[in-house]
Design goal:
Structural class: alpha/beta
Number of helices: 14
Strand content: 5-15%
Order of helices and strands: HEHEHEHHEEHEHHEHEHEEHHHH
Shape: globular
Strand order of the largest sheet: 7-6-8-5-9
Distance between the termini: 30 Å
CATH topology of the largest domain: D-Maltodextrin-Binding Protein, domain 2
CATH superfamily of the largest domain: Periplasmic binding protein-like II
């Protein structure tokens, strides 16, 4: 298990899960195994002695670039303020991180409000940012004894992405602009996007989209490659993906506000707040400090430029005056 940011795997939208390869009956059935496998992983962590240090704040992350960057950002920010920190990154997906937090294996990680609401709490999406945050904050405190701090400032929501050349040629700015072209266009989506209630079914109903060829279901890590190579004409990516500017792609505005918010927010366990009374105040000062473009730039620096995540984070914190020299 990784305990620090070293090599970073290809960027993928972890709030929407990770699939491998083109969809098949076997790959679709894998969704049912998620909670069981996550529980097994937690047991294996315990058996391997992967316990939380009682004298440190253990910071976790999911297993994709943005999450590792955010984990490193929290770690450096807290270390700069004298908090003892232990890194425990790449813990697989949402369910594993949530269970690790409940089990006390980690003390802190960054979640997304839309994911917490739909994947953990099993509640319908909420379109309004503040309402979604309030619902998750209250439910996490009541059901799990966990504390949400202030949102970090960016929304890593779903995004329909097209080639920049097509966007300029056809004057595509919003999803509504795509409607007349959809019957002849090939779409590429992740399996979870095709199934979940805030994904493909509601999208086509809201916008009246009708794709001629059936959308191709593929691994999230292949979406942009398929778009650039011409195997797909539109894909559902993530608003903060670093590959969007790297590959000259364009994000279509969700002009009907269909996608719910996925505001990034740190979630903290009660043990850490009890043992480190100043932790809550320190984390609150990160509220609103990371903009969507800034998160996308950090993802780009790591994914496309192959830069050291630790240095990328250090430069960001210094630029924002959140850390010393």
């Amino acid at each position: 298990m990784k305990t620090a940011v070293a090599s970073v795997p290809p960027s993928r939208s972890g709030k929407r899960g990770a699939q491998v390869g083109i969809s098949s009956p076997a790959s679709q059935n894998r969704a049912c195994w998620g909670p069981w496998l996550a529980g097994l992983l937690i047991l294996l962590l315990a058996a391997a002695g992967c316990h939380r240090s009682p004298s440190r704040i253990v910071i976790g992350s999911k297993n994709f670039t943005e999450q590792a960057i955010l984990g490193e950002l929290l770690a450096q920010y807290l270390e700069d303020r004298g908090f003892p920190v232990e890194r425990r990154f790449y813990l697989a997906g949402t369910y594993v991180c949530h269970q690790a937090l409940l089990a006390g294996r980690i003390d802190l990680y960054v979640e997304y409000t839309g994911t917490a609401l739909t994947a953990i709490l099993k509640q319908p999406p909420i379109r309004e940012h503040a309402a979604a945050y309030d619902r998750v904050r209250d439910a996490y405190a009541r059901q799990f004894g966990l504390t949400l701090t202030e949102p970090l400032g960016f929304n890593n929501t779903f995004a329909l992405v097209v080639r920049g050349s097509d966007a300029r040629r056809l004057h595509l700015q919003a999803i509504s602009d795509l409607v007349p072209y959809a019957p002849a266009w090939r779409a590429g989506f992740g399996y979870e996007f095709m199934e979940r209630r805030d994904g493909f079914p509601g999208l086509v109903a809201t916008y009246g989209l009708h794709f001629g060829p059936a959308p191709r279901t593929m691994d999230l890590g292949l979406l942009y490659r398929a778009l650039v190579s011409g195997q797909a004409d539109v894909v559902a990516g993530s608003a903060t993906d670093g590959q969007i500017p790297a590959l000259g792609l364009s994000v279509l505005e969700d002009n009907k506000h269909y996608f719910p918010p996925y505001d990034a927010v740190p979630i903290v366990g009660s043990r850490a707040l009890r043992d480190f009374p100043q932790l809550r105040t320190a984390l609150s000062r990160l509220g609103g400090r990371i903009q969507e473009t800034e998160m996308r730039q950090m993802n780009y620096a790591v994914d496309a430029q192959r830069r050291d995540p630790k240095q990328v984070v250090r430069e960001f914190l210094q630029r924002k005056k959140l850390a010393g020299g």
